[in-house]
Design brief:
CATH topology of chain B: TIM Barrel
Helix content of chain B: 40-55%
CATH architecture of chain B: Alpha-Beta Barrel
Strand content of chain B: 15-25%
Order of helices and strands of chain B: EHEHEHEEEHEEHEHHEEEHEH
Number of strands of chain A: 4
Largest sheet of chain A: 3 strands, antiparallel
Radius of gyration of chain A: 25 Å
CATH superfamily of chain B: Divalent-metal-dependent TIM barrel enzymes
Strand order of the largest sheet of chain A: 2-3-4
Largest interface: A-B, 49 and 46 residues
Radius of gyration of chain B: 18 Å
Distance between the termini of chain B: 29 Å
Oligomer: heterodimer
Structural class of chain B: alpha/beta
Number of helices of chain B: 9
Distance between the termini of chain A: 59 Å
Number of domains of chain B: 1
Helix content of chain A: 40-55%
Number of strands of chain B: 13
Largest sheet of chain B: 8 strands, parallel, barrel
CATH class of chain B: Alpha Beta
Chain lengths: 258, 276
């Protein structure tokens, strides 16, 4: 007789194996032998995890095609079995995993696509925050501006992409005309955030990327201006104010009361 | 602990139907959420849940408690469940009488337990801990199963009765799961139903399944079949009025289709209660 620990160990091993063997702890049914019965769980395990990855990475699935996508999934399932209580988080290591797939054609493209899609998913149900409003900003006394600290939304994320990933994602997700993957001459920085219920993303140039990096440090506004000026911006104060204005329009900033 | 209320006839809350529910406020008595889908920091899922719960009672149905596992109870998960239950004023919390993983690994499946004295003691003790932590009675659902273990010394219904007796938990009786397991393990589903004590049955699930000839898989992607409707009638005839809901997790049809299935459940149940 197997104790509960031994039985759970063996059953789970069989479910996670490539083939069930010697499932003699299970009684056969009228129609299926013991191995065939356990195999129903083994098959369901794989299908469920592949489905979860396909849901998290639908554009990658479309662009890579079934054969390549399923083979990536199989290797990922074997290497990163789920340890989270929610299947929603099963795919969190896929982008990094694909990067290590040396023999995979288009590994860089697929890894970037995975990174982008996972970031969208994280923003989708990420932390909420009240937005900075124009009225709130106008209400700030001029003397308080130098010490004013701005915060980006908790869902804010940025990434450097070497491929036309957002465009590929858009074409694949909206079921429009598919577009060809293209490696860019220069990598592009993209930002992604969720102001209310819809996620937004856009590209940023080098200067804005630097400014975002600085504002993310929660510097007082005067120090933010100084950082832009050190960067070589002759009209740093004006530029800083313009960035705040744009990020206000974009709904990238948290309420000052947060 | 106070007796849990009778809620009437409910549906599973699914993202495909959020907007329809908010716009049309259909006359559904209550909704059941899949707990894990709302254990997230923010965004659409919690937004729609907050909106919908203003108009409907909500109950929580989890898939990750893993009450039968030999791993320690995941207290972080349980704390999140408790916090959500408090914030949405969940009428009750349910999960499954099963295990889902071991050694920190999660199979994300509702794996059956052997029906043994060891399993009864293990599960009953853990249920008591969970109920103490949550400060309320929980419901556990009988799962569909595709294996039986050589080391089982009891029937499934004997196992359920004993677990409920020792832990004080309630049963979420999934009538479709009884049908599926009865087919897979060749037992009489009515013997199962008739062996359960009335006082432990707090909720009923109905769902569709896929018949693969040699076995049936509990897929929740099809309408409820006639045999399960008949079993439901017999169940209501035995237990009287029990809060009932329909689960659909895949191949989600328009809301109206599920609503009309729910109306059928209501009519059948009302007829049985009248006869009784």
């Amino acid at each position: 007789m197997m104790d509960l620990q031994a039985l759970q160990n063996k059953f789970l091993q069989d479910i996670m194996a490539s083939k069930v063997s010697d499932a003699n702890y299970v009684t056969p049914s009228k129609t299926l032998n013991s191995d065939e019965r356990v195999d129903l769980y083994r098959e369901a395990y794989n299908i469920r995890l592949v489905d979860a990855l396909s849901e998290s990475y639908s554009a990658l699935h479309t662009i890579a095609g079934d054969e390549v996508f399923y083979s990536i999934c199989q290797r990922y399932i074997n290497q990163f079995p789920s340890r989270h209580f929610s299947i929603r988080f099963f795919g969190e290591n896929l982008a990094d995993f694909i990067k290590t797939e040396e023999s995979l054609e288009n590994a860089e493209l697929f890894s970037e696509l995975a990174l982008f899609e996972w970031s969208l998913g994280k923003a989708f149900d990420g932390e909420n925050a009240d937005l900075l409003s124009r009225e709130q900003l106008l209400g700030v006394d001029a003397s308080d501006w130098p010490n004013l600290e701005f915060s980006l939304l908790p869902t804010f994320n940025r990434m450097k992409l070497h491929w036309n990933v957002p465009q590929l994602w858009k074409a694949a997700s909206e079921e429009g005309q598919p577009i060809a993957p293209q490696r860019l001459v220069q990598p592009t920085e993209w930002i992604l955030w969720r102001p209310e219920l819809q996620t937004s993303f856009r590209s940023v140039d080098k200067d804005e990327s630097f400014a975002l990096e600085e504002i993310a440090k929660k510097l007082p506004f005067a120090e933010f201006c100084q950082a832009l000026s050190i960067q070589g911006n002759e009209e740093a104060d004006l530029q800083a104010a313009q960035y705040i204005g744009r990020w206000l329009e974009d709904q990238l900033l948290q309420s000052l009361l947060s | 602990m106070s007796k849990l209320p009778y809620l009437g006839f409910g549906l599973g809350l699914r993202p495909d139907h959020y907007q329809t529910i908010i716009d049309n406020k259909p006359p559904v008595d209550w909704f059941e959420i899949i707990t894990e889908n709302y254990l997230v920091p923010g965004g659409k899922p919690l937004h729609f849940l907050e909106e919908i719960r203003k108009d409907y009672p909500v109950v929580m149905h989890g898939v990750s408690l893993s009450i039968g596992s030999m791993d320690p109870i995941n207290m972080d998960y349980l704390a999140q469940v408790k916090q959500l239950a408090n914030s949405i004023e969940a009428k009750w919390i349910s999960d499954h009488l099963c295990w889902t993983g071991l050694n920190g690994l999660n199979a994300h499946d509702l794996l059956p337990l052997p029906y043994s004295e060891e399993a009864i003691s293990h599960v009953a003790e853990r249920i008591s801990k969970v109920q103490d932590f949550l400060g309320r009675q929980i419901l556990l659902e009988n799962v569909s199963s595709y294996v039986t273990f050589k080391d089982s010394s009891l029937t499934e219904w004997e196992f359920i009765n004993e677990v409920a007796k020792r832990s004080g938990c309630l049963l979420l009786l999934d009538v479709n799961n009884v049908y599926v397991s009865a087919f897979n393990h060749s037992f009489d589903p009515m013997l199962y139903i008739n062996s359960l004590p009335k006082e432990i049955v707090q909720q009923i699930h109905l769902a569709g399944h896929t018949n693969c000839d040699t076995h049936i898989i509990d897929t929740h992607d099809e309408p409820i079949v006639d045999e399960v409707w008949k079993l439901y009638e017999a169940t209501i005839s035995r237990f009287g009025q029990v809060s009932t809901m329909i689960e659909r997790d895949d191949n989600i049809p328009p809301f109206e289709e599920l609503f009309s299935e729910l109306q059928k459940a209501k009519q059948l149940a009302e007829k049985q209660v009248l006869v009784a």
